[in-house]
Amino acid sequence: xxxxxxxxxxxxxxxxxxxxxxxxxxxxxxxxxxxxxxxxxxxxxxxxxxxxxxxxxxxxxxxxxxxxxxxxxxxxxxxxxxxxxxxxxxxxxxxxxxxxxxxxxxxxxxxxxxxxxxxxxxxxxxxxxxxxxxxxxxxxxxxxxxxxxxxxxxxxxxxxxxxxxxxxxxxxxxxxxxxxxxxxxxxxxxxxxxxxxxx
Length: 199
Prior knowledge:
Layout: H1 5-29, H2 32-50, H3 64-75, H4 82-86, H5 108-119, H6 128-155, H7 157-168, H8 171-177, H9 183-197
Helix pairs in contact: 2-6, 2-7, 5-6, 6-7, 6-8, 6-9
């Protein structure tokens, strides 16, 4: 059976192009541009799961720690001066000066949420916990990004991407991102400490 010369040239052309395309794809996935796009995609996946259903309890304040922090947030006020802030006996940002007998969560997380709520004019009891949940989700997205850099530093870019993706899809992390609590803030600081510890 005789082969049409034109068909032979077309097949040869396709076969000749395939290795070039594969090589181009292999070269591209090694670039920093691909790495950045892959990490952005992972962060978008993580954000979609952490920022969906922020008002999941429909203002019923079901989480006890979150309800307590929300109550504390609404009692705090900004000091009139730096001197007033550093005077722990009268600082309006000190929970103990606002009738809170016991406060063990640390003040930096609630100060950050207080600042964001003030900037957005969302500081009431029925608003500030939603601000806190979004901030909590952003902390955890920071953890997702740090896990990538930590994995890359230890074992290479592919391990970093895989670890970051797994962290983005971790159910417990997604759950805590929906609470105005200090877990994600603490996890972010611990992960950051690991990153700077490992060389």
